[in-house]
Write a structure and sequence with these properties.
This protein is α/β, with parallel strands linked by helices. It is about 40% helix and about 15% strand. It has a five-stranded mixed beta sheet, with helices on both faces. Strands 1-9-10 form a three-stranded parallel beta sheet. The two termini are about 25 Å apart.
Amino acid sequence: CTMLSGETANGANPAVAVATMAAIAANAEVGCDGDMTYKNVWNNTPKPITALEAVASSAVKACLDMGACAMVVFAQTMLPAALLSKYKPPVPIVVVTTNHRVAAQCNVVSSLVPMYLPEMGTSDETLPMVLNTIRKLGIAALETGDLESDQVVIMESIGTNPMIGIDWEDRTPIFKVKVVGDELASLIKPTGYEGDHTISFCSTKIGLENIVTTGDTVRKTKIVCTMGPKCWDEESISKLIDAGMGVARFNFSHGDHEGHGEVLHRLRTVIK
């Protein structure tokens, strides 16, 4: 996450500050080398790991190796989603859940995109809705013939209920791949590293192509905005959300319980 404080609470143009931070975060993410980041996290993770983390790390590795466009996890607790986020996949992770708390917590964890459902069917019944959400959010078009990867890596439990919950040890978690349109391996000739990019040990990979090409990736970094007098009204709150705010932070340097309660009510009204 990144946090804005005075820029949104008392700044002259809070929405512009949020939009600028969102653009900076999105541009910075383009330069991240997923493979090196994954190896760095893996090498610094104490072993042995749990079966759940082994499945999560393997799912992220598969995502990297195949060039998948999105990841999905069916989660009743934050742990499965947090483990996927830990290994820093280069794509958004759609967290399908029936738990309000899990959906809310996703807003402060990198890469996680909450998808709340009041009730859960089987994986096959729910997946079309999930794929439609991926399209609506602009994560991927999932269309055959667009010369883009249409592979989605899915982490779930075995059985009729795909949710991974606190009883995951009794219900084996797995990951699978859904190819909706084109498989990237059929579009691009597999090659090794040909020296086209400069790779640093800071887990970044920047080349001329990154600089001159307009990025179309979905930002995964979350932006926390401090609420203050400059953004207490509904219009300003709406502009912050449109600009990229993911979390509203209430600082009592800028108001009391009653005042912040009113702002919170306005925030909820705008979100609805």
